[in-house]
Design brief:
This protein has 190 residues and is an alpha+beta fold. The chain is built from six helices and seven strands, in the order H-H-E-E-H-E-H-H-E-E-E-E-H. Strands 1, 2, 3, 4, 5, 6 and 7 form a seven-stranded antiparallel sheet that branches. The longest helix is centred in the last third of the chain and has 22 residues. The chain is globular.
Length: 190
């Protein structure tokens, strides 16, 4: 994380915790008063005032059978609380973004086998379960267009450029609305 006002972030987190403490614990959603919403937006504007960047350096996970990795970068815009109006202000907050994710089936199968052996289960059955789950979810995600699959590796590459109204998912251009619909579809997966 660079150019992030950590003190402003701490204040925003404290405001949020206080608001959450005042919420009805039985409610399914968070209900903010106009004043609370204004406070949160003002706090967020303070956090964003230096155009912070957030980077997840390549996270690599490997075993004897394969390797998976993830990396992400998000550059945020300086928005004032007044600019945080309408339904698209979260989208306008992003200046640029990039996400790469690669998952190896062979690595997942070995991992499930190792976990099965460690828990006293049959490692072969656990490995087979890992392979079946990988295949099932990979198939659904490929059909949705969320990932591409080459042999036994699935990959997701997402490039966001809201300032130029461009979204690329696995080298395929799409609209913001299409991306949001995909996101909603992912939330509904079980």
């Amino acid at each position: 994380v660079s150019q992030l006002d950590k003190d402003a972030l701490s204040r925003l987190q404290a405001q949020w915790r206080q608001i959450m403490a005042e919420q009805d614990k039985k409610a399914d959603t968070v209900q903010l008063s106009t004043e609370q919403e204004h406070q949160i937006k003002e706090g967020l504007a303070e956090v964003l005032q230096h155009n912070p960047d957030i980077t997840l350096d390549p996270l690599v996970w490997e075993n004897g059978s394969g390797q998976s990795h993830a990396s992400a970068f998000m550059s945020l815009n300086d928005l004032t609380a007044a600019q945080m109006q309408g339904n698209d202000w979260l989208w306008r907050m992003i200046r640029q973004g990039h996400v790469d994710l690669t998952v190896s089936r062979d690595m997942v199968v070995e991992l499930f086998g190792q976990l099965g052996a460690g828990s006293g289960s049959n490692p072969e059955h656990a490995a087979a379960l890992g392979g079946a789950l990988f295949d099932q979810y990979a198939s659904v995600l490929v059909d949705m267009g969320v990932v591409s699959r080459q042999d036994d590796v699935v990959q997701l590459t997402l490039v966001l450029d809201p300032e130029n109204d461009q979204v690329m998912l696995n080298d395929q251009a799409m609209s913001t609305q299409q991306l949001m619909m995909l996101g909603l579809g992912l939330l509904l997966l079980r």
